[in-house]
């Protein structure tokens, strides 16, 4: 079972990964791998004044940080514990078998 954590804040991703790893270790699953995935940068330009000066632009960037947690053989009790874990706001968790 694999968990992919996504957030705009790198600290929130690291905190959530540590929290979930502690929960998995308490279940006695065994070795849990956490792998940091590449950060995704989305850059875009925003016109300051759309009517007069087309060259006046602000450049913005949104960074999405990701982390992968891999566990070898999960149990149903562990899946329920992970679903009920108190995850900080702004962290998305995707579960894949």
Automatic annotation (TrEMBL):
Entry keywords, A to Z: Ribonucleoprotein, Ribosomal protein
Tree of life domain: Bacteria
Domain Small ribosomal subunit protein uS10, chain residue ranges per copy: 2-96
Gene3D superfamilies per record: Ribosomal protein S10 domain (3.30.70.600)
GO biological process, one term: translation
Subunit structure: Part of the 30S ribosomal subunit.
PANTHER family: 30S RIBOSOMAL PROTEIN S10 FAMILY MEMBER
Xref: HAMAP family: Ribosomal_uS10 (MF_00508)
Name of the protein in its database record: Small ribosomal subunit protein uS10
UniProt gene name: rpS10
């Amino acid at each position: 079972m694999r968990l992919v954590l996504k957030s705009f804040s790198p600290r929130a991703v690291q905190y959530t990964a540590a929290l979930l790893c502690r929960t998995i270790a308490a279940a006695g699953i065994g070795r849990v791998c956490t792998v940091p995935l590449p950060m995704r940068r989305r850059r875009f330009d925003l016109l300051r004044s759309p009517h007069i000066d087309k060259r006046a632009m602000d450049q913005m960037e949104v960074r999405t940080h990701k982390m992968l947690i891999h566990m070898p053989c999960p149990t149903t009790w562990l899946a329920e514990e992970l679903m009920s874990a108190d995850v900080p706001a702004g962290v998305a968790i995707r579960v894949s078998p």
